[in-house]
Write a structure and sequence with these properties.
Number of strands: 15
CATH architecture of the domain at 3-182: 3-Layer(aba) Sandwich
Structural class: alpha+beta
Oligomer: single chain
Shape: globular
Amino acid sequence: MPEDIRRREGTMNPRLPLLVVALWAGVAGATPLENQLSGHASPYLRLHSTDPVAWQDWGPAAVQQARKSNKLLYLSIGYFSCHWCHVMQRESYKNPDIAKALNENFVPVKIDRELNPALDSRMIDFAERTQGRAGWPLNVFITPDGHPLYAVLYLPRENFAAVLARLTDLWRDDREGLMRMAAQAIPEPAGPGKPELNPQQVLAYVQHILATREKIADPVSGGFGTTNKFPSTPQLDFLLDVVERKPDPAVSEFLRLTLDHMSQTGLWDHLDGGFFRYTVDPTWQTPHFEKMLYDNAQLAWVYRRAARILNVPQYAVVADQTLDFLLREMRRPSGAMVASFSAVDAAGVEGGYYLFDDDTLRKKLSADEYPVFRRRWGMTDNPVELDAGFLMVSGETPQQIATAKKVEVEKITVLLDSAAKKLRAERATRQLPVDDKLLAGWNALALTAFSRAAGEQPRFRQAATDLRDYLMNVLWDKKTLARMLDANAKPAGNASLEDYAFVAQGLWYYAELTGKPTDYASVAAVVDAAWPRFYSGGWRLGEDSLISDEPRRDAIADGPLASPSGVLIDISLRLAAKRKDAELRERALAALNSARRELVEDPFWFATHVSAMQRVAGAAPAEAATATAQ
């Protein structure tokens, strides 16, 4: 099972056959490729430096090699904390037979999706259109002239070997036919719309999203979907917008249900704080144990907003604890935050860093602490017990335990606090691999979270300032944004629309915090740099493509992150209003209106765009909440 990000309804593209069976020898006399990943700036790519696969780094040389040798490029995209990426490495990329097939018949390229978000997004889009789903590991075969041909996600070794064999045969027997098939045109965008909005149309989009929410929302556990559960932060943020504009009991109740389950069950680390990336079940019980900077940054501000809008003070506590986790565990001396922590501990055990078996609990806790701790953290009736031990989820409250034991609640609290302290000390003896990349866009999401929190909690202001300084003084050279820097302080990876949009957003909220004209000027500088790079009658995620030209899009969909096109439009409209910039407002509105086709077809996945539309169109769309709930 791959690291799925979403499954979009629709018909799979039937143009590619199912690929299975035998190998073809490589180009005679070709110079053997060698693995290039030793010492790479990406911890994920360094993990693959000892594979027998001759992995190439992504760049012009790899593309030229494919064209020179007339071989298919094999782009294997993953990331450091991706469990199934590591499984595929262990099963396939360490296997000498698989390595031989890849090295002889393809130009194998290993890519860290977090260094090349535009390329990753483009391949995700291709996989969704042709396979009906997407996620990581994401493996795409590309023709030498730069057109995606075929995509697969995680496959067991035998199945993967069969795909390699079948593609090798097809490329030998019908190369021209495959190249023509891969080069099929992708529809051009509709182009900019009118620089104005129809409030009734915006109302219809809101109604559609709420109706969609009714269809796919889980009325028992909250969240969306019936298999695994992701936070779906952009959609939750949108629903908070709806409730803030006009309170609606049905929407508010769904939000409380979702936020309660996410923070009380397995998605939340009840010992050290911070959210895991997703759960593998629909009831939020069993997490995939990686912790991502982007999830925690986005959820921190969603919970803070929810505390105010839904009048639930506990959500502000969750938000603060999330930010404290970022400061304590992810922050580096520069003030920037690392990208993620692996799901697999240093011993190779998934979740091993976070779980406690019964022997450990009995050994570390006193006779009084042990039963109280197990009752408080759901380790009695139907506990979440995995191979490496128990997972902490909310069980009985301290008051319930105190009542049952007929003691003061303060005594229970003291026992729980002392038990937690001992288990934190135990956890500190364990090792958890870290992806220490300091990424522009993700740190900008943290800047947004800390800036918005600092208005209510001044203790977070310094963290916001440090993040702002890192982004503006280290990654921004007054004209161009770097995705990250390598060990030699040289730009690494490729900054994308995501980076520019999220940096502009983070700077906006920091400027709102300080009120300084110079901080608003920084927002304007990044916004002005972003538009000509990524928008010309349609959006591009990256500036330059080493393969075929990236097709322009009317809008970028929401995923685990908010849509970068929707975010840049929103910040541009806010900035235009602040500076009374009619030209910027007209440009942003025209781009926003061009998304009408996507919004008609599936507004749920474009909630960030609809939220921007609501802010422009005024209070009228809020009527949709009541209209749909009834």
